[in-house]
Each structure stands twice: as structure tokens, then as C-alpha cells.
Amino acid sequence: MLFESIFKAKNKTKEKVNHHFVLIEEVPLAMVGQEIILWGEASWWPKKSLMKFTRLTRGEIAVGTRYEQKVLLPFAPHWEVEVTKIIPGKEIERTFLNGMFQGNESVQLEERYNGIKVSYSMQFQIQGWFNNVMWYLVFQKLHDKNIIMILTALHDYILAQQKEGQS
Fold it and tell me: How many domains does the chain have?
């Protein structure tokens, strides 16, 4: 069944969505806003994350800023992304330029009555049969684990910053 779904032609072209979120309670939006813009480069980025971002362009992070994203495993994929949307303090979107994915990923903030919801969303298609196999057998679980680790690190960092500010 797994291999059947990997190799069906309709699944190769169907857009997939990978979504994760965390709620950071009782913090102002401004406290989280700049941190999502620094996604991949921030001081709170978990040292154990298997995803490494390397900025390829200079200057402030803006539409057009490019990164190389690399999975830190032997023979693992890497690709380039470009920032295609920024709403200061609320959202950053990066579009895949090459590699195993076509589509984009974004990090968005939403004010809630009890805090801030930080949502990570990846809308994508996997390019090539080999990448499809590797995604389903290896990289999807690693990706999900990494995103959860990253969102947890952001959550913990913001709460520590808030506590430090109250001291």
C-alpha cells in the first residue's frame, strides 16, 4: 500500500500540506514577531536541529533574500529557497527554488485571546520518484520531528525572555 501511493502518478503532482503549530500563552505579538523573521538564523534555533539555513544574500531579511537549506545527514538533500513574502512581525514565506520540493513554507503568527499561535506550514510537491520514496521512508518523520523541536525551542525562548523581562 505504501509503495502504491508513492508511485501513483496522481500523488506525484498532488500538492501536500505539512502543518504544525504551538501556542505561546500570555505574550505580546511584538515579542514573537521578529523571532519568526529570523527563522533558521535565530539564537534560539535548536543545536540538535538537522535543518541548517545558510543565508546566500546580504543585507536585511526581505523579499528576495535567499538561503540554502540543508539536512545535516550523510547523502541528505539540500535546496535553495527565496523569501517571497514578509509581513513584518506576522509572517515570513520562503519558496523552494530547486531540489526535492516545489512549493513554499511559511511561519505565521495569529493573536489569540490567551496568547500567540505560531503556525508552520509547508505546501509542496515532491519532485522525482526517488525523492518521493525517501520522503515517505525517511525524511517526513525527520522533518516533523525537527519542526516540533524548532517550535518548542521558540516557545521556550520566548517564555524565558518574558520571565527575564519581568525580573
Answer: 1
Contact status, residue 39 vs residue 92, Cβ threshold 8 Å: yes
Tell me which DSSP letter residue 134 carries. Answer: H
Give the CATH number, domain containing residue 101.
3.30.530.20
Q: What span, in angstroms and rounded, lies between the C-alpha atoms of 27 and 40?
A: 22
Q: How many CA atoms lie within 13 A of 63 on its CB side?
A: 5
The rounded distance, in Å, linking the Cα atoms of 144 and 148 is 6
Cell 525527520 identifies what position?
142
Query: What are the residues whose beta carbons fall under 8 Å from the beta carbon of 70, sequence distance 6 or more?
Result: 51, 52, 54, 76, 77, 78
Per-residue cell: 100:
526535492
- pLDDT means per 10 residues, the chain with 167 residues, are 48 81 94 94 95 96 97 92 96 97 98 95 96 93 96 97 82
Q: Is 16 helix (H, G, I), strand (E, B) or coil?
A: strand
Instruction: Note down the domain range covering 136.
Output: 2-7+14-166
For residue 17, give the 3-state DSSP assignment: strand
Q: Where is 161: in which H helix or E strand?
A: helix 140-166
> Model pTM?
0.89
